[in-house]
Amino acid sequence: MGPFPTQLNFGPFHFYLYGLGLGVAATSAFYYAKRRLAKAGLATDPFWIFATGLLVSGLVGARLAHLLTNWSFYRHNPGQWLALWNGGLASFGGIALAIPTGLILRRRLWPQVSPAQFLDRIVPALLVGWAVGRVLGPQFMYAGGGHLTHQWFGVYYHGQIGKRVPVPLIQGMEDAAIWLGAIALERKNFGAGFVSGFAIFTWGLVRSLDEYLLLGQNSHSGSIGVQISGIVLALLGALLMFRSTRN
Asked: Is 234 within 8 Å of 200 (Cβ atoms)?
């Protein structure tokens, strides 16, 4: 079996499946988050403002981080700076810019709810979006696989020689498992922030391990940065869980 297609062609028009996957993921997270906010008794009318700010800041931060960690290539290829259809979104860059954006918008749109309570509503929805996005996004992009492998589970990807570890599929299953764990903990009624702390801790740790064990090293500095960022995020999640049990 050959590589998964990266685009659909209709005459002169090219439809990139990577973008479609991200669109489906964002839509899934949007409606699930609205449902969770409504269930918590929070207004959902201004949610589109929050979601738009989060999406734009996340995309900008993710692309900037990718450009900076692969600057040796992009400095000579400015025409590729905005070529999102070839992939190139660094998760932690998106998180780094989306977090302060989300905190500012939360304070303006829902000042009556604490940051920890709001995170517990939003983070599970982000996990769903991330799970869907990994399976339907990088799985269909150029060079989306991990290390070379000869095992039965190897998958061919455009732009990479030989079978590769199907990292997008693995990460999609990981994110789905973290979501299931977060939902199970939510039913235990721990303190505010515990559910989101668990999700942040687990996702950061798993993402760091994925980068170290499964992914290629085309950008060594970027890879080390992802591993460190994952550990930092895991520590923040652990701190959030600890604080929730003290309140």
From this structure: yes
E strand or H helix at 136: helix 115-136
DSSP state at residue 77 = -
Locate 217 and state its tokens.
């090293």
Whether 85 shows a pLDDT value over 70: the answer reads no
Q: How far is CA 168 from CA 111, 155, 206, 207, in A?
A: 37, 11, 13, 12
Q: Three-class SS of residue 16?
A: strand
The residue ranges of every structural domain in the chain are 7-246
pLDDT digits (tens, 9 = 90+) for 161-172: 899 999 999 999
d(CA 36, CA 6): 33
In terms of Cβ atoms closer than 10 Å to its own Cβ (0-12, 13-18, 19+), residue 182 is buried
Please report, for residues 17, 35, 175, 204, 231, the alpha-carbon distance to residue 95 in angstroms, rounded to integers and kept in the order given: 23, 23, 15, 11, 14
d(CA 155, CA 162): 8
